């Protein structure tokens, strides 16, 4: 009677211990999975942040390039305008000079007669 009781007690205790161990293992596994999930989420967040930063940088670079292009275009336009102005000035001077030159030529021709 006594022996059976002790055996039953030991059996129950062992089973309980095993169950506890299993539960603890499960809990540990769950904790590990949770930790992994959290780490993964953090990594994902970091990746997203990095991507966002990269995108922002790219956009900034593009804007800078556009600005540079605009500046270059403006410079080119200015140069063209300057050239045009110079040409106009030269043309104006030549046109202004034309009557005098013609007069001179006429004078020379009339003088030679």
UniProtKB/TrEMBL annotation:
Domain of life: Eukaryota
Protein name in UniProt: Uncharacterized protein
Organism: Dreissena polymorpha (Zebra mussel)
């Amino acid at each position: 009677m006594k022996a059976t009781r002790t055996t039953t007690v030991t059996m129950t205790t062992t089973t309980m211990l095993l169950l506890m161990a299993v539960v603890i293992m499960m809990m540990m596994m769950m904790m590990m999975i949770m930790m992994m999930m959290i780490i993964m989420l953090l990594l994902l967040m970091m990746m997203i942040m990095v991507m966002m930063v990269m995108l922002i940088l790219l956009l900034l670079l593009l804007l800078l390039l556009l600005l540079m292009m605009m500046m270059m275009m403006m410079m080119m336009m200015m140069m063209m305008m300057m050239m045009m102005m110079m040409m106009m000035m030269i043309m104006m001077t030549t046109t202004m000079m034309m009557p005098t030159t013609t007069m001179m030529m006429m004078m020379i021709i009339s003088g030679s007669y």
